[in-house]
Design a protein that fits this description.
Layout lengths: L5 H12 L11 E3 L8 E4 L1 H8 L3 E4 L5 E5 L21 E3 L10 H12 L4 H10 L2 H4 L9
Antiparallel strand pairs: 1-2, 3-4, 4-5
Helix pairs in contact: 1-2, 1-4
Length: 144
């Protein structure tokens, strides 16, 4: 099952600081319009996480990338998600990660930092300051 772990958090922080990824806003990942197929313009900080996880990608008509998340934790009773759920249970995501995978409050906070001009280094610092449990949705917290 896909879970947010300390190892993944550490890899995400390192990737944000690596200089390998260029920032973009409003979407997890954007590719060049009319450019070479698959040429990346930039990532949101959340898109960097999706990228380093090796998540399958589909390019939309507006050149934003939809990530296909599979093997997610089950929904809690009465817990609804407004994004697209595929027949096989996977989720297509373009703006946020599945909130069964990562707490929506933390995603909103990090996306706001990203879209308001914080550097990836500043975002990495903010991620590092938080505990692992801050990122795990309460609906899917498992005993460790």
């Amino acid at each position: 099952m896909l879970q947010f772990t300390q190892e993944l958090k550490d890899q995400w922080v390192a990737a944000l600081r690596s200089g390998e990824f260029q920032p973009t806003t409003g979407t997890l990942k954007r590719v060049e319009r009319g450019g070479a197929e698959g040429e990346t313009v930039g990532h949101c900080c959340l898109g960097v996480l999706a990228e380093i996880m090796g998540t399958e990608q589909k390019v939309s008509e507006d050149n934003d990338v939809m990530f296909v998340f599979r093997d997610l934790p089950p929904f809690a009773e009465g817990y609804l998600d407004s994004n697209r759920i595929e027949e096989d249970g996977s989720e297509l995501r373009g703006g946020y990660l599945p909130n069964r995978f990562m707490n929506q409050w933390e995603q909103d906070s990090l996306a706001a930092m990203n879209d308001n001009g914080s550097t990836f280094g500043e975002i990495a610092d903010a991620i590092e300051e938080k505990s692992l449990k801050d990122f795990i949705p309460s609906e899917v917290v498992v005993k460790r």
